Amino acid sequence: MGDSIFGTMSYTALQNLTGLTDPIDYGSGVQWASGLMARYPQSAIQLGLWLVGKLSRHTPYPYPYHAQI
Fold this sequence. Notes:
By secondary structure, the protein is mainly β. The chain is built from 1 helix and 4 strands.
């Protein structure tokens, strides 16, 4: 196994797709999906999407929604 990386994670904002092809730092570290793919070509990538305030027309629930149990 050694230094094998099995998976990586990056984030982007759906409205402008920043952090996919060019590095960007939102304040929590650099996000750069294509940089991860180039550095770790055999690993899986998980892509997180920033959607806060962008889905209001698609759901009747205000953010944050807490399920009633």
